[in-house]
Amino acid sequence: MADPNGFLKHRRAEAAKRPVDDRLGDWAEVYEAIEQPARDEQVRTQAARCMDCGIPFCHSGSAGCPLGNLIPEWNDLVRRGDWEQASERLHATNNFPEFTGRLCPAPCEAACVLSISHDSGGAVAIKRVEQAIADVAWESGTVETLPSGISTGKKVAVVGSGPAGLAAAQQLTRAGHEVTVFERDDRLGGLLRYGIPEFKMEKKVLDRRLAQLRAEGTRFITNCEVGVDLPVEKLRAEFDAIVLAVGALRGRDTPETPGRQLRGVHLAMEHLVPANKFCEGDGPTPIDAAGKNVVIIGGGDTGADCLGTAHRQGAVRVYQLDQYPQPPTVRDDERSPWPTWPWVLRSYAAHEEGGDRLFAVAVESFVDDGSGQVKAVRLRKVRVERDASGRRRVVPRSEEVEEIPCDLALLAIGFEGVEHMRLLDDLGLALTPRGTLSCGTDWQTSSPGVFVCGDAHRGASLVVWAIAEGRSVANAVDTYLTGASDLPAPVHPT
Ligand code: SF4
Q1: What's the CA-to-centroid distance between 79 and ligand 1, angstroms?
Q2: pLDDT, tens only, 94-150
Q3: Candidates 52, 69, 89: which one to mutate for ligand 1, based on the most atoms within 8 Å of Cβ?
Q4: DSSP string covering 319-336, please?
Q5: Which of 203, 253, 374, 477 could lock 264 by a disulfide, CB 3.0 to 4.6 Å apart?
């Protein structure tokens, strides 16, 4: 039984981060490594703040955890020091809690009843507890390898090894199917490997989980672009079902902006992918911020990833531009009433490390230095409006134009859906107006036996949604292959 007064005794405390100077000197995760038993004691104190609500808004519903994580249960187990049982309860709903604990912006915390007001001391630090449970489990060797023990004789191909593909693959392998994951890159992990910077999640965290999947029987093939290196006819002939978890990596661009074609103006992923490959030991990156004035266009997660990366590469000065006004620092009843998701309150470790944030501005043009290289960015003050149909419009607030120096501009303004790939043409799959792949209520596309999940279906979203969709598509594929399934299906197609 939880302590209903725990939150009155202790205030919310997030995990301590390393000093900024230390962080900028390496690529390691930003959080302080705290020796035991101090770490466990700190986390147990945070878990003890949970009230075990009768209706735990954190756990599910429109604003809580898409995975239906059993948050009050494992909070109480951690409070009592039963880490092993807490890990069992956490893994019951989440294949990869060490990923979500590090990377998820935690809709569960936004939905926590204790975030109603600051008088309550703030939401339970759910993410911190989740990560600690997973890390303790790995450190103590209690993360189990769970081979199926049965064989259905059915073969499943999973295309893409990001979080959705990996979750689907693990669930289907454990259900007794023979699963092969195809990855077009040279290493596994998709966005987890080449999109997320090392300072947010060290790749050894991914590698140990991949080793678990391999030990359970999932097969992996890298450097294989399905549709090119492996024709679709062969894929269809060899596999009984296909899961498309190909992500939504087509970066939003602004080709109409004057100067967009200049050297030094890039999409964010053109910067982040080689930077991650550098961290893997692949040698110098072709797009390096060292010694440069950098301008990042976009104030979201990807922009923050570029910010932290540019500083570690040695940028002279970094500006980050956002079309929206400066967000409030505390919950605001009008703009972010509980329990709606207060995205505006999100903060990023990268913002503590430096850089100038400019709000309510948009790029007017990129300025040529005379040789075809960008030398500055012209900005105009703007506001964002919605028209009667709800469409977003960016409206100038003044005629005044400001110019800031720029040697490297990075466009981090979102993603427009699935990249063009021959595989989709050969399967006869058309994209929706949102650039994603549609499916029926059983996650099956218009091509029989071909399923979709994750960003490829939902559009660019959170790691927790990718895992939830991967788990759910596994249920659908299992049902398709065997007529019924005991696998969980935490979410449904949108
Ligand atoms: Fe605990 Fe907050 Fe969830 Fe209530 S809403 S059960 S206090 S984590």
Answers
A1: 13
A2: 999 999 999 998 889 988 999 877 678 889 999 999 999 999 999 999 999 999 999
A3: 52
A4: EEEESSPPPPSS--TTTS
A5: 374
